[in-house]
Amino acid sequence: MEIPRFSEMKLWFRDTIGVIGSAAKIPFRNPSFITFVLITSFPLFCMTLVPRLPSSQPPLIMEEAVIQLRVLTHHPKGHMIQLLRVYLFELVSFFTALTTIYAASTVYISSDRWKVSLRDLLRNSITKTRWREPMFTFLTVSLLSHICLTSVYYWHHHAKPLLSSSCSNRFLRAINMVVPVVAFDKWVEYGAWWNLSVVVSILEKDNRGFEAFSDAAELSEGNTRRGFVLMLLYCVWSSRFPTLIAKCTFPSVIAYDVLDTSFLCLGKVMNWVVLTVYYYDCKNRHKGLP
Prior knowledge:
Keywords: Membrane, Transmembrane, Transmembrane helix. The chain crosses the membrane at residues 33-50, 86-109, 135-155. The protein is mainly alpha-helical. Helices cover 82% and strands 0% of the residues. The chain has one domain (6-287). The chain has helices spanning 6-29, 32-49, 60-73, 77-109, 118-127, 132-166, 170-203, 211-219, 224-239, 241-249, 253-287. It starts with 5 loop residues before the first helix and ends with a helix. The model has no long low-confidence stretch (mean pLDDT 76).
């Protein structure tokens, strides 16, 4: 990624704030959207919060499922619980993304936003959306993100210490410092593309499988830096900002976990809302619209 000039950075910042501002107006354009998000994101909130609570035990339904899977696969109980948690979390995250993107799109493009009722949002976001292709795209994006984060984790905890201890050359040490920065830069850049492909797979009915990735790349051409800034802001929100506020506000462990989880879920939901607006911004730019 080339280093931009100051005037370009100022323009990107202004346009990025415009996208975020348009996304932030969606809940106020239709108050039903707020209730809708609270309902559809509640499973994600529970799935994120429960493992963090002190002495949290798996639900009985998960225990029963683990028993049945152990009979069939002979895997240890602990591994099966973790595997089920991962699968359930991804499915719940996909449900939140699917419903949020559809509802945000409906409110954003509707000519009379106030007439879109909560009942319509709930019914249409489930019955009028495809599930198979968007789920494939979402799980593929989750897998790619997991591979990238695992690679960075491996580098930081294994390869980097080994290289630092064995290399006295300043050039190699410089490489050792630059690699994490470049990796993060590329992860944010590709993360914007991957997440936009999820939006494309949900809102465009005519793409199949990996077509969502190529369509997203074509759609964001010439507008990738804005997506980069949006993903960078989301990374800042999801990694540090909620935790700092929660620690300063609530000394109680449970209260801290509840508030921190609320901020994280809010960040995930608003990220999909922002990406939905970003999707329409990219489409308008391709059509030559302001």
